[in-house]
Structure to design on (224 residues):
């Protein structure tokens, strides 16, 4: 089930959107400010889940929607829902990484159609690279760079790193990593996962901390 975070200080509008999205099979959460939205995003990360889309107002008390989008740095697809509908506003929204921009007033049917379109596009997008600060993974030529210097990884180490960077909100059990990274015809144990994680951390040096251990659960990506 796709999870959508609705961020708007108009309480009635949030309830209307949430009701209609829930009817369509989406799992919705409401935040009435950018600060609340950041709290919800962090709670999701801690729970090993993530939001698939933000419906984001621009004009709110405190941090604006534009400022929140800038803070998130394109981590989550965004559709702006706002009364700020000038060409300049729309250009600013798209420059901040918005996937769509809907001016108020709008119809719920239009919002649903736009959501389906954005989620359809993002689901099919396959990025050429995965990046975190100075760590860059090129999926096409299977290379990894740290601060623009190539480092050498085995196929297994590379696949583990790609998996953790691709699904940053998920805590992977050792069994999940075995199922997703190792070939079906290779017999390995949980200890093999730990050994490869240790080697990978050593090779990525100052970025070793991005591979976090969740005691009793497994491994996940963590910002440093």
């Amino acid at each position: 089930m796709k999870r959508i975070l609705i961020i708007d200080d108009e309480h009635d509008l949030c309830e209307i959107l949430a009701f209609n999205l829930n009817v369509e099979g989406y799992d919705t959460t409401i935040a009435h400010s950018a600060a609340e939205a950041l709290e919800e995003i962090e709670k999701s990360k801690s729970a090993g889940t993530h939001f698939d889309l933000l419906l984001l107002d621009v004009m709110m008390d405190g941090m604006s929607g534009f400022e929140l989008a800038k803070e998130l740095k394109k981590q989550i697809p965004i559709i702006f829902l706002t009364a700020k509908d000038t060409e300049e506003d729309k250009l600013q929204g798209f420059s901040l990484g918005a996937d769509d921009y809907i001016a108020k007033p709008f119809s719920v049917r239009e919002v649903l159609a736009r959501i389906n379109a954005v989620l359809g596009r993002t689901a099919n997008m396959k990025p050429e690279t995965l990046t975190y600060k100075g760590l860059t993974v090129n999926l096409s030529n299977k290379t990894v760079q740290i601060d623009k210097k190539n480092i050498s990884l085995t196929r297994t180490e590379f696949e583990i790193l790609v998996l953790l960077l691709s699904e940053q909100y998920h805590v992977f059990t050792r069994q999940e990593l075995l199922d997703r990274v190792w070939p079906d015809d290779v017999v390995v144990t949980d200890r093999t996962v730990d050994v490869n994680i240790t080697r990978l951390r050593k090779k990525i040096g100052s970025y070793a901390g991005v591979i976090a251990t969740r005691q009793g659960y497994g491994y996940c990506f963590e910002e440093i």
